[in-house]
């Protein structure tokens, strides 16, 4: 399940296991530093071995998979987009992933500008002039894919690392309707 | 050791003085021959700071005017970043406010200090007020529906008591004046042996019988464009050609009488209680109007009514007795048998005819 070779994704939510059962004393929460330690060291090695572009593709794809599973197992698909956004905000806050806000929403044309404050990946990082939240781009794309059945282009246009205080994502439809 | 000329210190001092005095500050021109040392570095960084401050000032000015679409400048200064954070928060608030304005009160604002509390409290109160208004509207709608239903019931009741034109006059003027009607046909019917038979039947069954027969009589009268005026016990009074002028009022009245007789024949074949009627008709003029105040009915008066009643009482069981006046109007339409006359006070002899059927 965890280490075998594969050509197709086999991740499923059940693979996260029962953390309550496994950590009766240490509990279900860890500091953000620990999460970032894992992510950034992983990113560092991947870039070293595979290069930036391929690493970004992997992070985006992983984030997208996570986004899809997050809707299926946590948020739930909603009948109305506004209700979906509201529930998403609630869960992202509850799980301390970030503070999701909407700056612009043209639902008719599928155009959105979302911000995530206190983002798990980047808030408090040094300002380097980069937008680094590729995993989050994929995550948001996955959320919207599962909710709407449509593929979206998600691009981070502002990041803590680029000098902003929120991560800002510009979202537009990809023009491809995904079936199944 | 670094040597610095006084003019360089003065330039910096002046620029900083203008900055803190709220005045526009330009970047300092760096002399080309200034060596690449700490002074040059200081000037370069100072100029960068001026440029960033200018951008931040323009940005904050646009925010203060509510121009949320102003493109935030790039930069690393904390001041600029804070303004950008403020702009992001304001944009989000704008969107939330639009959702609330659209009737969606489920949105909350978080992590904006006192403003969050105030905004969320305002939303809660708006939601309560909206729900209260909705409940009141619902009550109003229900009350209106009840009023409409009551009004329809009253109208139906009135329609069963008064002619439509009389109701219209009452609604429009508050009263309905008696009217004189020329050339109308009056119909009277009466059950044969009703008094005797009614003493043998329980009251509920009697009322059911009358109701069942008169309902069909009403239906026939309406079908033939007549107006049922009233029932008096087992007597039935209707008029043709009154509020609805009809050239063939007499013919229609007789046709109604034939249908009523046919209905009774058929009913008697299939029902344990057998009823027979006497029917009488007369054509002439009469006066119609509302009688009474607290409990009123619409009634008709005049010799025509009295003679029609005499026609009925001088008829025979299951026979339709018409006067000369009616006969004159329908002799080409119906088979009749002449049968003598009766003396009517103030009128003299009045000929009578039985209607046998259609020609």
Automatic annotation (TrEMBL), chain A:
<dbReference type="InterPro" id="IPR024096">
    <property type="entry name" value="NO_sig/Golgi_transp_ligand-bd"/>
</dbReference>
<feature type="domain" description="4-vinyl reductase 4VR">
    <location>
        <begin position="111"/>
        <end position="173"/>
    </location>
</feature>
<dbReference type="InterPro" id="IPR004096">
    <property type="entry name" value="V4R"/>
</dbReference>
<protein>
    <submittedName>
        <fullName>4-vinyl reductase</fullName>
    </submittedName>
</protein>
<dbReference type="Pfam" id="PF02830">
    <property type="entry name" value="V4R"/>
</dbReference>
Automatic annotation (TrEMBL), chain B:
<feature type="domain" description="Guanylate cyclase">
    <location>
        <begin position="185"/>
        <end position="312"/>
    </location>
</feature>
<dbReference type="InterPro" id="IPR001054">
    <property type="entry name" value="A/G_cyclase"/>
</dbReference>
<keyword id="KW-1133">Transmembrane helix</keyword>
<keyword id="KW-0141">cGMP biosynthesis</keyword>
<keyword id="KW-0547">Nucleotide-binding</keyword>
<dbReference type="Pfam" id="PF00211">
    <property type="entry name" value="Guanylate_cyc"/>
</dbReference>
<dbReference type="InterPro" id="IPR018297">
    <property type="entry name" value="A/G_cyclase_CS"/>
</dbReference>
<feature type="coiled-coil region">
    <location>
        <begin position="119"/>
        <end position="160"/>
    </location>
</feature>
<keyword id="KW-0812">Transmembrane</keyword>
<feature type="domain" description="HAMP">
    <location>
        <begin position="84"/>
        <end position="131"/>
    </location>
</feature>
<dbReference type="InterPro" id="IPR029787">
    <property type="entry name" value="Nucleotide_cyclase"/>
</dbReference>
<keyword id="KW-0456">Lyase</keyword>
<protein>
    <recommendedName>
        <fullName>guanylate cyclase</fullName>
        <ecNumber>4.6.1.2</ecNumber>
    </recommendedName>
</protein>
<comment type="similarity">
    <text>Belongs to the adenylyl cyclase class-4/guanylyl cyclase family.</text>
</comment>
<dbReference type="Pfam" id="PF07701">
    <property type="entry name" value="HNOBA"/>
</dbReference>
<keyword id="KW-0472">Membrane</keyword>
<keyword id="KW-0175">Coiled coil</keyword>
<dbReference type="InterPro" id="IPR050401">
    <property type="entry name" value="Cyclic_nucleotide_synthase"/>
</dbReference>
<keyword id="KW-0732">Signal</keyword>
<dbReference type="InterPro" id="IPR003660">
    <property type="entry name" value="HAMP_dom"/>
</dbReference>
<dbReference type="InterPro" id="IPR011645">
    <property type="entry name" value="HNOB_dom_associated"/>
</dbReference>
